[in-house]
Amino acid sequence: IIKISLIDLTSIPSKYDDSFDLLIALDVLEHIEEDYQAISQIYRILKPNGIAIFTVGVPVRERWISAPSSP
């Protein structure tokens, strides 16, 4: 059974505690001001040995600006 839920990641209801085997958040965390709170909430709702998969998008322009210069 696959359960899909849409919730506020910074304020997840306690009814979801230890509920998920897998949580996938693709290109989401960079849009959340309280990202550490969201991650804490995500790990609270995972079952023991549950897996969370995150990706964080970085605009191409920012990658070039922060990249070290070549010798």
Number of strands: 2
Indicate the overall shape: globular
Number of alpha- plus pi-helical segments = 2
Beta-strand percent range? 15-25%
Within the largest sheet, what's the order of strands?
A: 1-2
Radius of gyration over all CA atoms, rounded: 16 Å
Which spans of ≥5 residues are poorly predicted at pLDDT below 50? none
Average residue pLDDT: 83
**How far from one another are the termini?**
54 Å
The helix-and-strand class reads: alpha+beta
Largest sheet: 2 strands, parallel
SSE sequence, one letter per element: EHEH
The percent range for helix content is 25-40%
Write up this protein.
The chain is α+β, with helices and mostly antiparallel strands. The chain is built from 2 helices and 2 strands, in the order βαβα. It has helices at residues 35-45, 60-66, and strands spanning 20-26, 46-55. The chain has a two-stranded parallel ribbon. Helix 1 links the parallel strand 1 (20-26) and strand 2. The longest helix is centred in the middle third of the chain and has 11 residues, at 35-45. It is globular and about 35 Å long. The relative contact order is 0.22. The model has no long low-confidence stretch (mean pLDDT 83).
